What we know:
8 helices, globular
Amino acid sequence: MTMPNRSTPGIERNAAPYLHGTEYAALAAVLAAGAQPRFLDVDPTTLCVTGEHVRTALTPATRAVMPVLYGGRPVDLTALRAEFADRGIVVVEDAAHAFGSVTLDGTPVGATGNLTCFSLGPIKNLTCGQGGLIVPRDAEEAERARSLRGLGIVETSAIRAAATSYTVAAAGWREQMSALNAAIGRAQLSGFGVVAARRQQLWRAYRTALSTVKGVRVVDVDVDHAVPAEPHSPHRFEGRGMRSEAGRRAVGRVTSHRLRRRLIPATARSGAAHRSS
């Protein structure tokens, strides 16, 4: 799909292709920026893009690439960094699933130099009850993000409390995280190591339990490096039985039955934002 950016003619952005786990959220961000998403292919074993997928999809109009770290699996685009820099292309990681995951060389997701976005929703690896987290690339980008989340106001809350006026530099939203949500997140963070290990343990248990289910395979999230997101959800499984709604429901029933015997809950969630014909 191609369409000129509403604010800058001729710009498009390559959005990650298979938005099964993130539903419409990643697309909404691209559209809100006035850009047009372009869907890419994915590796069928991981449901993530590869560097080669991205390289072949780049056009002169591309200004950003948004890989979805599906299931928590890191996406390595290191080989394309020089080309991105030469062409002025930004990588925006949709790491909603990937808090706590690390790359093959041990670098935590969010510390790779990319603009990274985490979800802190109720079923994510780290939760604040609701909300999200942006890891900016530099101080200027951080300041811009703070302004946007606070109605475009330049001054901090502390400065405004001691002043009688304030400056609005651009349009923004009221998206500040409440102190209550932040307190939940801080409490969760202190025990995150235990949570991460438990999620990896559950993922391995699912992989073992489903290994004998005909026509079903577990998506490879690289559990040795990833903290699997939502390991209780059958949409992390793929196979011939998942092609139809009836098939997905049947697999869900099998999954739930087998896993509940091991006291592991299972639920079904979300659908793809884009499907090929």
